[in-house]
Amino acid sequence: EVQLVEAGGGLVQNGGSLRLSCAASGFTFSNYAMSWVRQAPGKAFERVSTINSGGESTNYADSVKGRFTISRDNAKNTLYLQMNSLRLEDTAVYYCAKSAVRSPYLRYNYDYRGQGTQVTVSS
Q1: For residue 42, how many other CB atoms are within 10 A of its CB?
Q2: Alpha-carbon distance 92 to 83, whole Å?
Q3: Which of 42, 78, 85, 95 has the highest CB neighbour count under 10 A?
């Protein structure tokens, strides 16, 4: 059974930083691209960032480029998202998501998502 468990969310001031983590189990983590997606209140899901299975390639939404960094530790089956210079509009529930396709390349469609962790940025 695929399990994705996010942690690290919380309340942070505008301009602050947080580091999210996602512990993965139930599949061969190193074979799949992984993504962080988020959903703000009343809004659609937004893909934030994606990393390929080996960690060599990454992609970011324009809204977070230069502020967020995605990374992974395949030995620990863990995905990370370092978020710096947080803004009010980054407030959302953040989810890690597993690519639907086993591939060494960036893949954006996902088939499993964790339960999410709340990130709230205050002024």
Answers
A1: 5
A2: 13
A3: 95
Pairing of strands 32-39, 45-51: antiparallel
pLDDT digits (tens, 9 = 90+) for 24-35: 999 999 999 999
CB 37 within 8 A of CB 24: no
Asked if residues 48 and 34 have their Cβ atoms less than 8 Å apart, the reply is no
Asked whether the beta carbons of 78 and 30 are under 8 A apart, the reply is no
**Per-residue pLDDT tens over the stretch 8-48:** 999 999 999 999 999 999 999 999 999 999 999 999 999 99
pLDDT digits (tens, 9 = 90+) for 79-113: 999 999 999 999 999 999 999 999 889 989 999 99
